[in-house]
From TrEMBL:
PROSITE patterns in the cross-refs: PROKAR_LIPOPROTEIN (PS51257)
Domain of life (superkingdom): Bacteria
Region (Disordered): 29-65, 308-333
Record's protein name: Lipoprotein
Compositional bias segments (type: Gly residues): 44-61
Length: 333
């Protein structure tokens, strides 16, 4: 595909070549145990590994307590060792101060093998050219719009929290933890009363399957005279992993003090409490004042799959979530 074919770009990216079924190898038939989904990169997502055993997840389809479901989600998700993410982040409203208006984020992480893959395509403003780069096996690749071809930049790339690793994840939860580390991380999230609140859980249907829809609100807190919110996720991770910067972990509004209110909604398999899909919506606040911008990150999960094998002979669009946008609205500032 020539780059001009991506002129149809973002609307076609989400639909091209993606099956409607969500891949959650090993899940129950009523809750998303989907068929293999053919990926843009060539292999089928999901592979043969399936989800890691992870930590025990209590409860089942009758879960009604948001806090209990949140605890089960954290235990099950953070202990997954091989996870692939298909994400789309958009900014709306007054986006003049936003770094990007749209990003396609395709990533994969194998905690045991200490290997990762990232693919990022982004626009800095509406109508701006799409920029795209990949990090695979420690090598950086970039798409040259003028030449309409991929190029090996001859630079190494590092998938850690300061580099490409900040695009690995769903904006809220890390993966690759041990069971004990998962307990520490969960305890750290509980250490700030009134900050992270699982506010609602209810049954939901999508693609003829049953899910638990869990809503979690992250409210700005005063921290040393400044407003803090998602940076408290980094604090929890730092308290969990001694060498925390070496691993990948995407955090909403990474690297900035965030007084922005955030709402995260997860669609979970009732049997495993693993997420199939999530949306993270943010009302952007800067120095206590709403900027007029909002952010919306949509993420689909694939557990236990083989490493992506991107086709750089042509400009193949990255896989986007097969779930339609569920319309999660940002919380009020």
């Amino acid at each position: 595909m020539r780059h001009g074919g991506v002129g149809r770009r973002w609307s076609t990216w989400a639909a091209a070549g993606l099956a409607a079924a969500v891949v959650l190898t090993g899940c129950s038939s009523d809750s998303g145990g989907g068929k293999g989904k053919e990926k843009k990169g060539g292999d089928k997502a999901g592979g043969t590994g399936g989800p890691s055993a992870g930590a025990p997840a209590p409860g089942g389809a009758g879960d009604k307590d948001p806090r209990a479901v949140w605890a089960a989600l954290v235990a099950a998700t953070t202990t997954q060792q091989v996870v692939e993410y298909h994400g789309v982040r958009t900014a709306a409203g007054d986006t003049a101060k936003e770094a990007t208006v749209k990003e396609e984020l395709w990533s994969w992480y194998d905690a045991g093998g200490k290997s990762a893959f990232t693919d990022r395509a982004y626009q800095v403003a509406a109508g701006a050219p799409i920029k795209r780069s990949q990090c695979e096996a420690g090598r950086e690749w970039s798409y040259n719009n003028a030449l309409e071809q991929w190029s090996d930049t001859k630079r190494t790339c590092v998938v850690d929290m300061s580099h490409e690793g900040k695009y690995v994840g769903d904006g809220i939860l890390p993966t690759g933890l041990t069971a004990e580390q998962a307990k520490t991380f969960a305890a750290q999230l509980e250490a700030t009363p009134g900050w992270l609140t699982p506010s609602a859980v209810e049954p939901a249907q999508q693609n003829g399957k049953s899910w638990l829809r869990l809503t979690v609100d992250l409210k700005p807190q005063q921290n040393g005279g400044a407003a803090a919110n998602t940076d408290l996720l980094l604090r929890a991770f730092r308290a969990t992993i001694p060498d925390f910067t070496k691993g990948p972990y995407q955090i909403e509004n990474f690297g900035r003090q965030s007084g922005s209110p955030v709402r995260a909604v997860f669609w979970l398999d009732p049997a495993t409490h693993l997420p199939a899909y999530s949306e993270v919506s943010t009302t952007v606040v800067d120095k206590g004042v709403a900027t007029g911008a909002t952010r919306h990150l949509r993420t689909e999960y694939v557990f236990g799959g083989a490493a992506p094998k991107p086709d750089r002979a042509t400009l193949v669009p990255a896989p986007a979530p097969s779930w339609p946008d569920q319309g999660t609205t940002p919380p009020p500032a």
